[in-house]
């Protein structure tokens, strides 16, 4: 039985290994089918052989590992859009006016200043005389125009022109890659269209659409009450999972205070809700039949809450995970909670292997695992018989345990660590359950039309107090450590340190201490490697549409040549990843030596006739009125670079001239910032 205690952990490891191999390698479909068939046959033969043996050997175990591994590989392989025969990327991927597309809007995303954004599940490509059934998700950007009526919503079946575009990559180094993020949601293209260019041809009537309509009706009802804008935005995020009305300033405050996790319904909210339900239904623990009733009621109420939040993907995922945990809690075996977590992980990854790469999914599972593993260890470090003190110590141990698991990922993805994180969670977590419970009650009473004014006012004061507290914490800037460079290698090595701590906590001996010390050494080597591989010097022509910005990195200093003010947001990511601690603004010069290469910066129509002057790179900025063909003949550069501070008409003219003269042309607005490599 001991070997079966963590069977789902091992199965998940094999499954994930197969999925990762499929995501990062290419394979012919014939090889995939042949390999799976051979492994399946071997597994059947090994099973028959094991049944006829008195003392089974390891062959059956090996074939089981191979079977789960190949199952993970095949699941991920056939989920990749390029391996799906009916995916839209296989048909007419270029923009055209002769094709129409029909599809179902499945989800609404947070809008931008210029458009509303939805996820569109494609159904048909329609051309004159025929239609083709297709699959795949598209990012639908509905641009604001004078005819916009904002009637488009999830559940609508729409018809529009098929003009797919590649999702743009970031134009400056180390910026957030929105296209990569969308690929993790299996979205390969985007469509930009005005609201007037969309025709609604129907509406899908399913449970997800009904859930979305129910949530919107609840939100409309709440807006009739006297909640402030920020209070209502937080209310919607906390209870209903709708974050579209949260202002950028409010979002930044929650992030700086280390409380951003409460603005997105995740494992934290569902976990608190599960604990509340488990406590409320504790009288049903008296017999086996009533315990079964308790499980049924908990699952019913958890999924009712998911329906209340519109059945969004992240909430459904969290409720699914905690449904397994709820069952494990009632079994009351030592390893049931861990097995329940890994069973839910196994189940969810089979449904969607892309969950592996989604940050919310990773953070939810790591936080829950960390609480189960570390909370008992931390709690036992100190004991007290004073009940109120013991209660807060339990909350502290839970908060500390959760952070142990998620800090490496938080540093890697968000590059910041709030120094007041523990204090924030200690103050908020005890009241989050109260806020959730009271919020649900407010919603129910509001729907029934019997919400007392005193309850509305009390809840509004609570939400306002929460926002004021978060703003106060976020305002202590000295305790917010941001722009932390933390690589994937450092993240993985830090997880190795945490694993060694877990092993060491079970038993202290020479080998476990050695493993712990070696893991620390590996983390130090990873940190040293990240510093060592940074270039000593590097030059870059940044993409900026409002000004010219040419950077020259020397050690930990970045010299910026620009006539205008420095755009710090543009330089933030580059400075973090290149370990820059000082930015020096300099006046632009016509002639620069960048990374050992002579460069001419042409920002006017000046005469550049200099004897024996042959620059390797010609940088065009500020839309100079130059005769490029004559300039090329005179200077004979090896590379032409045009930054974002140029008229589009000039760019096209320069491109044609460069093509005619066979000189490489780089426009930062299309190819991103131009990095000049050092000769040495």
Automatic annotation (TrEMBL):
Listed transmembrane segments: 7-25, 31-48, 60-78, 254-280, 292-308, 338-357, 363-379, 391-414, 426-451, 458-476, 482-503, 510-529
Localization of this protein: Cell membrane
GO CC field: plasma membrane
Keyword Transmembrane appears in the UniProt entry: yes
Domain of life: Bacteria
All copies of domain ComEC/Rec2-related protein, residue ranges: 238-505
Name used for this protein in its record: ComEC family competence protein
The species this protein was found in: Christiangramia aestuarii
